[in-house]
Amino acid sequence: MSTVKEKLIENLIGEEKISQSKITIVGTGAVGMACAICILLKDLADELALVDVAVDKLKGETMDLQHGSLFFNTPKITSGKDYSVSANSKLVIVTAGARQQEGESRLALVQRNVNIMKSIIPTIVHHSPDCKMLIVSNPVDILTYVVWKLSGLPATRVIGSGCNLDSARFRYLIGEKLGVHPTSCHGWIIGEHGDSSVPLWSGVNVAGVALKSLDPKLGTDSDKDQWKNIHKQVIDSGYQIIKLKGYTSWAIGLSVTDLVGSILKNLRRVHPVSTMVKGLYGLKEEIFLSIPCVLGQNGISDIVKVNLNSEEEALFKKSADILWNIQKELVF
Ligand SMILES: NC(=O)c1ccc[n+]([C@@H]2O[C@H](COP(=O)([O-])OP(=O)(O)OC[C@H]3O[C@@H](n4cnc5c(N)ncnc54)[C@H](O)[C@@H]3O)[C@@H](O)[C@H]2O)c1
Q1: Which parts of the chain span the membrane according to its record (predicted)?
Q2: pLDDT at residue 100 above 90?
């Protein structure tokens, strides 16, 4: 007796089961799920796998996304506590871990999240030895270093989301001040994702017109327009949103998805992401900090050599010192 399916459909060829652009998200909290929905809406993957230790939440989130399948073009959404579900991923996005409490700095989270990385990274690499990894969990620069060490992958394939979000916030705020859309306001924040990040005022421009050429004091204490406050707002905004809604999610989800697009579509766009900066600007330690990087199918293929002025270089080195003082004490 044939089933309805057999009566309706005649199979001609065996189904190709291997996904070509599979993405795994580890951690299905606020950040992981914001990344998931943005990735689905942008059609960046042919399979999305979700992994978390909280199995009920994981199942609920998975079902909720699957029921939206009519409205996006990712045919397979899978999930599980076991990392076998992540096998054959092109990209693994790590958002697992504790998040900041109100008023807590990103750096204070460190040992808790290092322990989580220890428990998950070797298994991820075992199942997807050729993947790229995009680290989002905080403190993101230190954890990207830790994941690089734990994974055994080349540094070019272990990318920290770094200052991609900080720079997006910077451009939004510049845009608000000028009444121009952020895509037309160019500006970069490098260094640590967090309190010691470095705004590159010398590069801030609209249509190639450097704002500093209009006011050489731009970004300094003696600037009467107080552009410096914009960087202060960038630093404070994470704390402020956590105070107001308990966590941050949408902007990080969107900014991570922008990175995912560059990687999976091999766009070779330049993003401020966290990478190994030993040897740059005289840095001697194995530190991960954000600098402009070319992102494509192999991860970070190139870096852009930014000419920092002496003040910017000093701030960048200070960012490195702050991270190194924490990183050198880590046990993993
Ligand atoms: N880099 C950035 O710009 C940025 C921005 C926002 C948040 N974050 C960071 O992202 C991380 C996640 O934030 P959130 O708000 O989604 O937190 P959350 O508490 O909502 O979610 C974290 C998830 O990780 C899971 N988890 C914990 N241990 C795990 C393990 N061993 N294996 C698998 N999953 C595990 C939890 O069950 C939870 O679902 C935090 O570290 C946060 O600070 C980074």
Answers
A1: none
A2: no
